Amino acid sequence: MTPIDLIAAASGAGASDPGMSLAPAALRESSIEATLRGRGLAPTWHDIAVPTDGSDRTARMRAAALGVATAVEASVAEGRCFMMIGGDHSLAAGTWSGVANALGPGQRFGLLWVDAHMDAHTPATTPSGDGHGMPLAALLGETVPAFAGLCRAPPALRPEHLCLIGSNSFEAEEAALLARFGVRIFPAAEVHARGFSAVLHDACAVLRAGTELFGLSLDVDVVDRAEAPGVVASKVHHPLWPGLAAADLVQGLHGLAAQAGFLGMDLVELNPLHDIEARTVTLALGLVSSIFEAA
């Protein structure tokens, strides 16, 4: 059995809807351990201490991301695969800063960011003020005070080693930031036209050019709402249609973790409060099963 660290961060402080804090418990109760054991993995839970009191949401978000960064750094430094189970996507600022800290200056890694959103705002451009819209900007080295210091030698991530897949809801300012960095983006429309597997093949070729290691940051809101209703409440009626087809995503990600150099992944933005008949929880388990199945 291959060890894998399940880093549970029950924090929704980076979003206006705190329901995502319930996702780690929902997945824990829904046989995610058995799913991983069925793929030859030996999971160990690491629960991040997440502050729940106080009115300073930014401070709580930062504390959670810092806890994630510390746990992920330990996993990578000790040679174990990890899965960070959120919680909202602001936690990813901690995940990939932790990876960068473990690898040290000069060691690069690639990152697949599979998400309906770009998450590349700064405090100067965000229309909502929510931290889950800013982790990519911080990872690329932009000034986001809430995430300052998570990476000891920023930027945590080089833009040429980053690919976004599934984007279909974003503001002009974050698109401009990513364009300035030259980040490769495969929007949802392209995925619909070509298929997720074909797009993923091209994305992996981009992000792994000159790198030996890579990871995945997976936001379940990339999936069409008809199949994944359990996301942030404000997004349920947002005009994101159509999202990606669940079956296409499950098939396309099959065996990803078996590829050489796979470090680990985020699984974020599942909101059990808005799920219907556990459809999104079931989908998340199916994605995990597919990702960690031997190719």
From TrEMBL:
InterPro entries, sorted: Arginase, Ureohydrolase, Ureohydrolase_dom_sf
Required co-factors: Mn(2+)
Pfam families: Arginase
Enzyme class: hydrolase
EC number: 3.5.3.1
GO MF: arginase activity; manganese ion binding
Pathway entry: Nitrogen metabolism; urea cycle; L-ornithine and urea from L-arginine: step 1/1
Cited SUPFAM superfamilies: Arginase/deacetylase
Cellular component per GO, a single term: cytosol
Domain of life, source organism: Bacteria
Keywords of the record: Arginine metabolism, Hydrolase, Manganese, Metal-binding
GO BP: any one term: arginine metabolic process
Membership in a protein family: Belongs to the arginase family.
Name of this protein: Arginase
